[in-house]
Amino acid sequence: MRVLIAVDESAQARTVVEALTPWLSRSDAEVHLVSVVDMSRVPVAMRAGEPAFEPAPYFGGTRPQAEQPMPRAVETHGQALERARTERHEWLMRLAQEAMAGVAPKVHVVADDDTAMAIAKYGAEVGADLVAVGTHGRSGLSRALMGSVAEQVVRRSERPVVVVRAGMQTATPFAPFEG
Predict the structure, then answer these.
(1) 32, 92 contact by CB (below 8 A)
(2) Which of 24, 40, 42 is nearest to 32 (CA)?
(3) Whole-number Å distance between alpha carbons of 56 and 74
(4) Do residues 76 and 45 make contact, with C-beta atoms less than 8 angstroms apart?
(5) Is the C-alpha dihedral spanning 6, 8, 12, 18 positive or negative?
(6) How confident is the model over 25-49, as a mean pLDDT?
(7) Which among 16, 45, 117, 130 could bridge 73 via Cys, Cβ 3.0 to 4.6 Å?
(8) Which pLDDT score, from 0 to 100, does residue 51 have?
């Protein structure tokens, strides 16, 4: 059995991992821990030598002179994306070590503009038998305005999806759920 656990850097991520770890530690499941870096949130850096803004046309008088040189990019967009991926990978490794006792997950970081679709595609790519995602439990207007990645994963995934909320407990694979 292959289980894909998709997490972001929220507190809810630890909830998903902690809810599933007791079950996973007693099973022989191959576990994939994945996180998606939203490329649309990685800052678009300037190209070296380009001004940070377009100068407005100046009509009449003496043009003011800038005493400071124009800012230059500290890193390119590609470098910023690679840094974000590296930082996310390190965070996932810490999460796995701290919260997944008895489970040795394969850790993956994916970069995409559509988090839910990336999770659904990655679940199919690794042949997951189950995809697990967390939910913040929003409802009503806040859910309508902010959307729900978990809901979109459920709608788009070809694999079964379990959605974990804070406080959920799982049954072990060898004992029925009592609750």
Answers:
(1) no
(2) 24
(3) 25
(4) yes
(5) positive
(6) 79
(7) 45
(8) 47
* 75-107 tens-digit pLDDT: 777 888 898 999 999 999 999 999 998 899 999
Long-range pairs of 11-18 with CB within 8 A, sequence gap ≥ 24: 12/134, 12/135, 12/136, 12/166, 13/95, 13/134, 14/95, 14/99, 15/134, 15/164, 15/165, 15/166, 15/167, 15/168, 16/132, 16/133, 16/134, 16/164, 17/95, 17/96, 17/99, 17/100, 18/99
Separation of alpha carbons 161 and 129, rounded Å? 9
In angstroms, rounded to a whole number, what is the distance separating the alpha carbons of residues 118 and 124?
A: 10
Positions of E strands within the chain? 2-6, 30-38, 106-112, 130-134, 161-164
Residues with Cβ within 8 Å of 113's Cβ and at least 6 positions away in sequence, in order, are 38, 39, 40
Alpha-carbon distances of 52 from 46, 48, 154, 163, rounded to whole Å = 7, 10, 41, 43
Region 115-128: mean pLDDT is 95
- Cα–Cα distance list, 12 to 6, 16, 62 (Å): 11, 6, 57
Of residues 68 and 157, more confidence is placed in 157
Quote the radius of gyration of the chain (alpha carbons, Å): 22
Beta strand 161-164 with 130-134 is parallel
pLDDT tens digits for range 155-168: 999 999 998 877 66
